[in-house]
Amino acid sequence: EYDGERNSEGERHGRGKARLPNGDTYDGEYEHGFRSGRGTYRFRSGAYYTGEYLQNKKHGQGTFFYPDGSKYEGDWVNDQRHGYGEYTYANGDTYTGEWFNHNRHGQGTYVYKDTGSKYVGGWVNGNQEGEAEVIHLNHRFKGKFLNGNPVGRGKYVFDIGCEQHGEYIQSEQDKGEEEEEPLLLAAPKWKASEITKLTLWTPHGENPPSP
């Protein structure tokens, strides 16, 4: 069903409301028969999107409310979360930063609601990867991440005014000869090397220029 404006060719064009065969509804702008411009699309599942469209695709600025209570507010390209945006998860966690092809990708900040901890750094295809800082209530960790786990050299900085340097080492798990199961990687173990006063430090390990 469609109720709205049409152009001389009879195409949906201008403002209109539509009810789709599957029960979804759209209320917004059309161009030459396509959803284009601003509009609100409500899914039968309870999810809805309000924002910009281009030729039936979510494209531009828009906000999507998911059935589980989570929501994404930001850039869309060709129906995908792409560009810059903020996602609020059902448990209250938030991610603010860059998106690429629907995934967290680039630089972004993830805030854990329960603990107040923050991950600030790199993301690749939805996973924590690259240089990052994890900020807790009274200390922080600076280093590198791979597949969501810290890896290699890094340091913990404590608010009382000292640092603990060390590295994360991937612990191997014992495996019997017969086991063909893929190796379940245990969480990397932190191996501390020294405790120092606060210093300037870069994850590359170069010495920074003296101030």
UniProtKB/TrEMBL annotation:
The ranges of region (Disordered) come to 1-28
Provide the alphabetized UniProt keywords: Cell projection, Cilium, Cytoplasm, Cytoskeleton, Flagellum, Meiosis, Repeat
**Organism domain of life:** Eukaryota
Its GO CC terms? motile cilium; nucleus
Basic and acidic residues bias: start-end ranges: 1-13
Gene Ontology terms describing biological process: axoneme assembly; meiotic cell cycle; spermatid development
**SMART domains given in the database record:** MORN
| SUPFAM superfamilies assigned to the protein according to its UniProt record, in alphabetical order | Histone H3 K4-specific methyltransferase SET7/9 N-terminal domain
User: Where does this one sit in the cell?
Assistant: Cytoplasm, Cytoskeleton, Flagellum axoneme
Relate the protein's function as given in its record.
Functions as part of axonemal radial spoke complexes that play an important part in the motility of sperm and cilia.
Full protein name? Radial spoke head 1 homolog
Give the species this sequence originates from.
Aramus guarauna
Name the encoding gene, please.
Answer: Rsph1
